Amino acid sequence: MRVRRPCIALVGLMGAGKTSVGREVAERLAVPFIDLDEEIVRRQGCSIPDIFAASGETGFRRMEHDVLQDVTMARAGQGGVLATGGGVVVTPENRTLLRASWHVVWLRARVETLVERLARDEAERPLLQTGHPLAMRVRELARIRTPWYREVAHAVVDVDGLSVAAVAEQVIQSWCGAVSSQRVREGE
Ligand SMILES: Nc1ncnc2c1ncn2[C@@H]1O[C@H](COP(=O)(O)OP(=O)(O)O)[C@@H](O)[C@H]1O
Ligand SMILES: O=C(O)C1=C[C@@H](OP(=O)(O)O)[C@@H](O)[C@H](O)C1
Ligand SMILES: [Mg+2]
């Protein structure tokens, strides 16, 4: 039997819980955890707001793409859990890369859930600093990005009302389901 190491990437809007859930899933599966934003910050030696201030969203997206490529090369096949940033799907090449190399799980949340969570740490997320009400901005991002999350995801978990542990459990079940289906397809 071929050994399959978990390679799971989490996508979804800001506040959906990708970072929190990703850390928990990696711990439970005993594989490395990578947070794309944390990796960008480590490499650049400055915070996400500082990167946006210095290089704009275009510069940030270029860094995000480079780091995603490197992490995918390093981890795909080796095992790992990747928490992406909410806007990773904006770049078409990222969608292709994610879909081809990771089991992609979309953490889907209602706008109300996201707003409640993001109100606490809005300042860390430059794309929320528009001067418009938070709910309006989140709704706009959801409208633009939902088709991309749908395109890239192999599975969806609805996170509203669930604890981090409960979402992590569903992500792991989705991975197990994908492995079983692959075994059936390959006649193992
Ligand atoms: N399932 C959950 N239930 C309650 N709060 C959560 C849950 N998941 C994440 N949070 C909280 O929401 C905020 C955003 O979570 P985070 O993991 O940073 O999301 P993302 O990486 O998707 O932006 C944090 O304050 C986190 O503690
Ligand atoms: O939605 C986005 O475009 C972004 C989401 C953030 O990550 P989280 O989704 O982890 O908050 C971070 O990458 C950056 O502020 C841009
Ligand atoms: Mg995050």
Automatic annotation (TrEMBL):
SUPFAM superfamilies: P-loop containing nucleoside triphosphate hydrolases. Its cofactor is Mg(2+). Its main location: cytoplasm. HAMAP family: Shikimate_kinase. Monomer. Catalyzes the specific phosphorylation of the 3-hydroxyl group of shikimic acid using ATP as a cosubstrate. This is Shikimate kinase. It comes from Alicyclobacillus cellulosilyticus.
